Amino acid sequence: MTVAERPLRVAFFGHAEGRRGDGLSTYSRELVHALRDEGVDLRFFAHRADGELVPVESRDALLLRAWHLRTVTIPRPGSVRSIRTALADFAPDVVHISWSFSLHDGVIARLGHQVGAVTVATFHLPHGPAGTARGRVLNGLYRYHRLQMRNVDRCIALSWGQRALLVRAGYEARRITVIANGVDTTAISPGPSRLHHELGARLVVLYIGRLDPEKRVPALVESFLSLRLPSDHVLCIAGDGVQRDRLRRLAAGRANVRLLGLVGADRVLELLRGCDVFVLPSTTEGLALSLLEAMAAGCAIVATDAGEDGTALDQAGLVISTHPLRPALDTAVARLLFDEPLRRRLGEAARDRATTEYSMSRSAQRVLAVYAAASSRVATAPTTPTPVALP
């Protein structure tokens, strides 16, 4: 993609890795790589509190200082000045914010306009079940964030349900494009793994993600233990979060429940390729990247119908209702553990669904189309695939 015969310049405000391992950092890493593959000249902005693993060379990254609380990133004094200086130096055509980057998201969008860039935001906030206390809280947060988005030219929603909430909150429908999360189906694919040998396990159940209340990982541990499986049937939990200590207590004295902590991308692939059943028991989601990664790796999957997860997995895994979680979770996990042909069929179907509908290269081309729609200054080079038409 070019602007006046030079590469398109994008300032991407996202999330680094190292001290966090969630969908936000994965989204940043994978989309940045895909945009660079499309010829974009990209400068990456993140917070040092996330870690120091970034998807670009250090000369193309700016790590900012901030206080990172559970769900809020509070920039430290001087952050706005650093961002303003970096943007003026880089002169981007597009400022893309992985929302919410920090409490300064709205300020960053305004700074983008000040340097002549168009501004785009990918909205990551999940949406809760209608009529529940969590759903009402999230709806209120949508209204709050809509006010901060007054300087955002185009918004990328990860699902149609999320788009509907943004519209109800007051953001203009014509400026919203739905682009589902994508996954690098070349890098993440079925393959050999030493996981069974490493664990001394015959069968492995796996969860990867944040250890926060909405993920309901303690319920997964309780469900797994209730099945009274042989000791060579192992549950692995990879990730970190506020429920870490509770999970340690649940796993204490249980040799077949392994808490792995945060794991890097290479280890994630080893886990996905080696597991027999992948489980995602969330109560709220947009479209979980961990689910798409498991699909790309050819896992047999059990997931709730939270957000768009059920739609993505439909007929390519076992989808259970978000509420009540049990005994449906117990039944679905047991069914897959005891039916190897079913695991194989669902794994193949999940892989096929990921490659045909959720590839990151397809998502990146749609993001480039959003950039083009946001500004007539963005032109498409002859070698760039034709942008997907916007709804």
From TrEMBL:
<protein>
    <submittedName>
        <fullName>Glycosyltransferase family 4 protein</fullName>
    </submittedName>
</protein>
<dbReference type="Pfam" id="PF13439">
    <property type="entry name" value="Glyco_transf_4"/>
</dbReference>
<dbReference type="Pfam" id="PF00534">
    <property type="entry name" value="Glycos_transf_1"/>
</dbReference>
<feature type="domain" description="Glycosyl transferase family 1">
    <location>
        <begin position="202"/>
        <end position="352"/>
    </location>
</feature>
<dbReference type="InterPro" id="IPR001296">
    <property type="entry name" value="Glyco_trans_1"/>
</dbReference>
<dbReference type="InterPro" id="IPR028098">
    <property type="entry name" value="Glyco_trans_4-like_N"/>
</dbReference>
<dbReference type="GO" id="GO:0016757">
    <property type="term" value="F:glycosyltransferase activity"/>
</dbReference>
<dbReference type="InterPro" id="IPR050194">
    <property type="entry name" value="Glycosyltransferase_grp1"/>
</dbReference>
<feature type="domain" description="Glycosyltransferase subfamily 4-like N-terminal">
    <location>
        <begin position="22"/>
        <end position="186"/>
    </location>
</feature>
